[in-house]
Write a structure and sequence with these properties.
Elements lengths: L1 E5 L3 H12 L3 E5 L6 E6 L5 E5 L2 H6 L2 E4 L6 H5 L11 E4 L19 E6 L2 E4 L4 E6 L3 E5 L2 H4 L2 H11 L3 E3 L3 H21 L10 H20 L6 H14 L6 H7 L10 H10 L5 H15 L2
Parallel strand pairs: 1-2, 1-5, 2-4, 3-9, 5-6, 6-7, 10-11
Antiparallel strand pairs: 3-4, 7-10, 8-9
Helix pairs in contact: 6-7, 6-8, 6-9, 6-11, 7-8, 10-11
The chain binds NADP nicotinamide-adenine-dinucleotide phosphate.
GO cellular component, one term: cytoplasm
Function: Catalyzes the NADPH-dependent reduction of ketopantoate into pantoic acid.
Family: Belongs to the ketopantoate reductase family.
């Protein structure tokens, strides 16, 4: 396939290298105009990718949007007029709500979302590290996207397994968002690893967050039991105890976080459903204050 990766950061570069190694024609689209970009991956010789060529964008069968949630709209809008008919657009960011304003403009294209638990880092020499083996779940954001499941899943799975299809991607995205709402803001506020949240006072707060989240999810027509969410949050805290969450790292590096598309999205839906969410609201405000101090 002709594949263009929009956003040459950690996760975009990881997919670029795996898809290149799987035999696809992969090109990159970054913020600058360099006609080629070289990425170093594993023990391989650096891979040279064509970059920032309108012709590559015109020929792409698949565009993978690998920017952060708050960068999605600005990155993709100028690209849409260059996409050929039938080109599939696959989003990979964390959080929810970033794609909604673009769906009408993408109505002629199959639109998919991939949520992944792989971990990746890229250094300033464009050397990519695959820091955590994970799995990827793909689902459709429109009807055209749903028609592509039998093509896209085996193709991605061949490149970076395991990849599975989920007919109810909204539930999968909300499940991930719910866990992120419980863990990410608290690790950033307390400047701690995920495992340090497993103290009685913090767990009591997480339990209260879970009650609010489950009310919102239920009102949105999704399945969520607050006790099960609390149990899952504790499992994730334990399984990732040594990790720093992405929101913690963003605050530490004085970068904008994805809070608006995680807790912020929850608050937006809570407001629409007229559900009070004071515990989540407080965490949201604390992260926004930290962002404002940067
Ligand atoms: N890294 C992981 O392990 C991982 C795992 C799972 C999910 N995710 C999610 O994947 C998303 C991307 O994360 P990441 O870690 O890959 O972030 P990242 O390293 O910051 O990569 C984002 C890339 O997009 C580029 N970009 C931003 N705006 C652009 C534009 N208008 N045009 C072209 N390129 C643009 C950025 O360039 P600049 O540097 O110039 O801004 C950067 O290279 C996030 O939502 C994250 O939560 C990441």
């Amino acid at each position: 396939m002709n594949i263009t990766i929009l956003g040459v950061g950690a996760i975009g570069s990881l997919w670029a290298c795996y898809l290149h190694n799987a035999g696809h024609h992969v090109s990159l689209w970054s913020r600058d105009t360099a006609p080629s970009i070289s990425l170093s991956f594993a023990q391989q010789a650096p891979i040279q990718f064509s970059a920032n060529q309108i012709s590559d964008m015109n020929n792409a069968d698949l565009v993978i949007v690998a920017v952060k949630a708050w960068q999605v709209e600005q990155a993709l809008l100028p690209i849409i007029p260059h996409l050929k008919k039938g080109c599939c657009v696959l989003f990979t960011h964390n959080g929810m709500g970033a794609v909604d304003p673009l769906l009408a403009q993408l109505s002629e294209h199959p639109v998919l979302f991939a949520t992944t638990t792989h971990g990746a880092l890229i250094d300033n020499q464009s050397k990519i590290q695959h820091t955590g083996q994970g799995q990827t779940t793909v689902g459709a954001l429109n009807e055209r996207g749903a028609l592509l499941s039998s093509q896209i899943v085996p193709m991605l799975d061949h490149a970076l397994a395991p990849v599975s299809w989920d007919d109810n991607i909204q539930q999968a995205l909300w499940n991930k968002l719910a866990i992120n709402c419980c863990i990410n803001p608290l690790t950033a506020i307390h400047n701690c690893r995920n495992g340090e949240l497993a103290q009685s006072e913090t767990l009591t707060l997480i339990q209260a967050l879970c009650v609010e989240i489950s009310k919102v999810m239920t009102a949105e027509g999704l399945t969520c039991d607050s006790d099960a969410l609390f149990a899952k949050s504790q499992q994730v805290i334990q399984a990732t105890s040594a990790n720093f969450s992405s929101m913690h790292q963003d605050i530490q590096h004085q970068r904008r976080t994805e809070i608006d598309y995680i807790t912020g999205y929850l608050l937006q839906r809570a407001k629409a459903q007229q559900i009070l969410t004071p515990y989540n609201q407080t965490l949201y405000q604390q992260i926004k204050q930290k962002e404002a101090q940067q």
